[in-house]
Amino acid sequence: MDKEKTIPPYSIEYLKSYFSINSIVGCTVDCAYCFLSPLGISPSKPRKVIDEESLVDRLEESEFFIPHETVLSLNNRTEPFLNKFTTESTLKIMYILDQRKLRNPVTVTSKGKLSKETVSFIDNLREINPFIIVTNSGLPKEVEPLGHKGQIETMKNVRDYSERIHLLHQFRPIIQGINDSEEVMKDVLSKAQEYCDGSIVSGLRMTQFIRDRIIKSGVKLDMPLSPDHKLMDNDFRKRVYGFIKETYPEYPIFSETSCAISWRLDISDINGYWSKGEEKGICDLGCPNHFNCYDRRPKPNIKKISNLLKVMNIDSKFEIKENQIFIYGSISQEQRSYLRHKNRFPIKSSSITKSESEKVISP
Q1: Is the alpha carbon torsion for 63, 14, 266, 308 positive or negative?
Q2: Residues 38, 24: Cα–Cα separation, whole Å
Q3: Which residues neighbour 272 within 8 Å (Cβ) at sequence distance 6 or greater?
Q4: What is the pLDDT of residues 339-354, one digit of tens each?
Q5: Which domains does the chain have, with CATH numbers?
């Protein structure tokens, strides 16, 4: 059988902020807002779809992978620390990457509990650059069934038993009328700022599918659809961020995952979200990475871009505009992510071919 056909479509996929690689697909937690639910892999029993060695082989064979540079996300098609099965597989991927002396930033986003033994195992890996992103959003159990106690314990264990791990907190999704009260925000962030390097605070990508699931859970919801972007209108954003900055003025907050990761890597934002400025609420938060994005960000190089397009067999003209590189032709979402991260500059094109998961999530 052809090796390409043995790889399920959601095992390897270049997402907006990182290259997603997954040995396991499926999650039983069943959060009402879960982006996996339209894909039919949540709620479902986690199953191994490819062994860890073969997965890393496929990663290294990919045209999109750059050793020591590409930001990776592990097992985000499941809960990577849900139980012994998913935890062992996630740690095995990290171990193999480390054994192959790949110094890439490696992110794992989790609502699960990381024991002190798990934290120590990750911390003792010498090559990879590990990021643990703990999701704790103060949502009710009707929307997010997994309790928050384990998430706080994970934060404590990473802080107490690690020297190398970057620890970020994800306050996402924050949903208007559900977990956006000052009481909830203070409860969530009082713990996060005690242990974490910073928090990623953003809204919900509201597809019709997810909207129906949240309403079915019994929670009242009065928010418009936003199938392609995490929703936080300007007034809502100003209220939320204003309260956070007033309450915790020295604590770093970000509205995008790539902003927080780039800050810890001491580089300009890999997605170039500085180009959107106040429109997206990125750069008016007192962002600690402001210097990298505005004074140290790389300038587009015509020769470099031409060579990248040639290597990827993209036969299209392009133009370097003030805050974007525009490609006059069609490219895939994965190509756009690769080009954007390679240049650390916004990429636009005449049209985009959606990735396998995006065709289902936002048809």
Answers
A1: positive
A2: 17
A3: 297, 323, 324, 340, 344, 345, 346
A4: 999 999 999 999 999 9
A5: 3-295 (3.20.20.70), 302-361 (3.30.70)
